[in-house]
Structures are given as C-alpha cells and as structure tokens.
Specification:
Radius of gyration: 17 Å
Structural class: alpha/beta
Number of strands: 10
Largest sheet: 8 strands, parallel, barrel
Strand content: 15-25%
Low-confidence stretches: none
Length: 266
C-alpha cells in the first residue's frame, strides 16, 4: 500500500480540455490521493458547493486549490486579486484543502505587487490553517527580447515567502536548476507541481520522465528530507487524442511519483 504521508494529487488542468469533474472521476479510478482544483473559467471550478458534491460522489478529497492567477482568469470572481485569493482560501477551508497555490503578481499589478508580502501575511493571519504556496514562474520572450512579467521576479525566493510551490516544467522554461532552487526553498517547499520539460522558453508540462528535468531525483530528495509536502501531477494531455491515452499518461505520471516517493513495494 502507498505511503500516504506525501499525497499525490491530480491537477484538474491535467484533464483539459475535459471539464473539472472528469479530474475527480479519473483521480478515483487511477488511485490518486486527491485533486488539485485549478480555479478557472469552468463554472464548476469556481463553485465550492458543486466541488463538495464531487468530493462526496467520488470519495476523493481536494488537497490543494490553485487561485485564479492566469491571464485568462483575471476576471474570475473579481477583478481584485486579493478578493480572488480570499475566495480561493475560503474554498480551500470549505473543502478541507491545506494548500492554496498562488503565482507572484504580474508586473503591471503595481499596487498588488507593492504590498504582496504584507498581504500574504494578513491572509495567513486570517486563515491560519492554510499554506499560501507561491509558485516559481518563468520569463517570456517579447519581440525576441527577454521579458519578466512578474514582480519583483518570477523566482519567488526573491524576496522570499513562508511557503513555496516548485513547478518543474517552469524550471525547464526558465532554464533554472530545479535541485538548486529546491535547496533555496528549503523546508518552505511545501508543494510540488510534477511535470517535465526540456526546452527553455517553453512551458511543456510533459509526463515526468519524458523531458530533461530531475523529476525523480527531486521527489527522492524531498521525501528523504521530510514528508511535510504534497505533489500535484500537472501535465498537459490536451494533445493526447482521447480518453484512453489521457488515462495512460495520468497513470504513468502517478506511478512515476509513487516510485520516486518510495510508495511502491521494492
């Protein structure tokens, strides 16, 4: 039996273009420990009571909630980023999820960015049972020039936060050494987005083992260091061609995580 001390979750983004509800179905069928809900334009992902119904129906918990931070979700719930984060925290509390994943502010969100560390501290005071895990992102290219769309940086260790999400696909896209970043995050690394990549400048979210990122080594190192973190499989199956291949990719990703977390029999 798998060691549940490090839960392996299925991100709802991993079933796209199928809807949020399908992630619960596949997580239950494949044996995931839970689901990470990405709050986005799918109405189900925005409704905590509908999500609670899915939890009860499939008997699969929500282990983390990803706040609506993408460009396409800037008007989900509210135009105010603090209100979006507050509602993500309320959802996480309602569903019993200990972690809220959040991106650094966009560079053009100047007012939000100026007070982001202080605002997160207030959120932690308001929701003391939640972790607000800030995720590493990556620079973009605009007119063949590098462009950092995040403030103060796409690397959340600058300036530093109490909790981090390490995304391996984003490490590939930014050309970052994932193991070195994990060391800088230290024990504040409380959540991992498991996906692979091989090309700087491209956010591939490949099945782990199909890129050049140290996905297995990272999981092994973190599980040896402590078990106080969670893993969410965040791979792209958009071009899988159908449900059967999607299920194969998600099962392969789950077994990869189980193996490198030491959750499978020798």
């Amino acid at each position: 039996m798998a060691d549940a001390s490090v839960p392996v979750l299925l991100s709802t983004t991993a079933v796209y273009p199928e809807p949020t509800a399908v992630a619960f179905e596949l997580a239950a069928d494949l044996g995931y420990d839970g689901v990470e809900v990405m709050v986005w334009t799918d109405a189900v992902s925005q409704n905590q009571e509908t999500l609670a119904t899915l939890v009860d129906h499939y008997q699969i918990p929500v282990g983390s909630v990803h706040a609506p931070c993408l460009l396409m979700t800037q008007r989900v719930w509210s135009k105010n980023p603090w209100e979006r984060l507050r509602r993500a925290a309320v959802m996480a509390e309602r569903l019993g999820a200990p972690t809220v994943v959040i991106h650094p502010p966009f560079a053009w969100q100047r007012g939000y960015g100026r007070v982001f560390p202080q605002g997160l501290e207030k959120m932690r005071e308001r929701f003391p049972n939640l972790r607000f895990a800030v995720e590493n992102m990556y620079p973009l290219k605009l007119a063949k020039r590098g462009f950092v769309p995040y403030a103060p940086h796409w690397d959340p260790t600058d300036p530093g936060y109490d909790d981090y999400t390490l995304d391996l696909s984003h490490c590939a896209a930014s050309g970052t050494d994932a193991l070195e970043l994990a060391e800088r995050m230290g024990d504040n690394l409380t959540h991992v987005h498991l996906g692979d990549g091989s090309t700087q400048g491209r956010d591939e979210h490949a099945v782990p083992g199909r890129g050049n990122q140290p996905c297995g080594e990272l999981l092994q190192q973190r599980s040896r260091r402590n078990h106080d973190f969670s893993v969410a499989v965040e791979v792209s199956t958009r071009k899988s061609g159908g449900r059967a291949v999607r299920e194969q990719d998600l099962n392969e990703s789950l077994q990869f995580a189980r193996k490198h977390l030491g959750q499978t029999p020798e």
